[in-house]
């Protein structure tokens, strides 16, 4: 169980494969520091070269975990029915309201998400978020400064737009090039983006808790 007793996200066949590779590598080289990007690339290449027969056991593990997740999620939703409804009401927002300011971590995620997905093609949203959190924690202060500057600039933009919005102008949303509105996204795209944001928010919260405990 994860945050608020929410079920742990289900693992894909590829995620089980990578986990197995890590365990095997750790047994053979217990004192070796693994460079994740290089290790991930090798896992991806090895996975692509495997036959369906070789991948079968990992698909079986993933299917078993999918059933575990669905069962736990069903119980979780039943016990949090009122809470979930409250959250949905809270999330309802004015489409004309300014887009919220992104944190430094979110700006970093925007840069790195595509790379993580490319290196881990079968990773779930939760697994991608965890890897992004791990990479962020390994960044130096100098590397983070770029994203902190972007976050500060975006915060100023948000505060300016929010001030205009609250004054009744409702000119909150920034328009695209030439003053045209950005193209609307499909429900599926919006849902996927929201899921990614929620996972990354949880990962950012977990990182903050880790920093506080140091």
Automatic annotation (TrEMBL):
Residues 7-77, 98-166 bind DNA. Residues 191-214 have a biased composition (Acidic residues). Keywords: Chromosome, DNA-binding, Nucleus, Repeat. It is found in: Chromosome; Nucleus. SUPFAM superfamilies: HMG-box. It comes from the Eukaryota. Belongs to the HMGB family. This is High mobility group protein DSP1.
């Amino acid at each position: 169980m994860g945050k608020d007793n929410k079920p742990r996200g289900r693992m894909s066949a590829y995620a089980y494969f990578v986990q197995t590779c890590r365990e095997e590598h750790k047994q053979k080289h217990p004192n070796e520091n693994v460079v994740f990007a290089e290790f991930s690339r090798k896992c991806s290449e090895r996975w692509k070269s495997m036959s369906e027969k070789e991948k079968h056991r990992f698909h079986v593990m993933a299917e078993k975990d999918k059933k575990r997740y669905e069962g736990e999620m069903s119980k979780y939703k039943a016990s949090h029915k009122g809470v979930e409804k409250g959250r949905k009401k809270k999330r309802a927002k004015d489409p004309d309201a300014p887009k919220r300011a992104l944190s430094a971590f979110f700006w970093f995620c925007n840069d790195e998400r595509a790379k993580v997905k490319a290196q881990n093609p079968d990773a779930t949203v939760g697994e991608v978020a965890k890897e992004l959190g791990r990479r962020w924690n390994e960044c130096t202060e100098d590397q983070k400064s770029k994203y902190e500057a972007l976050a500060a600039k975006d915060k100023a933009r948000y505060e300016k737009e929010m001030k205009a919005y609250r004054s009744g102008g409702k000119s909150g949303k920034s328009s695209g090039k030439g003053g045209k509105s950005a193209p609307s996204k499909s429900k599926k795209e919006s849902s996927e983006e929201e899921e990614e944001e929620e996972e990354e928010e949880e990962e950012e919260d977990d990182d903050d808790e880790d920093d506080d405990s140091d």
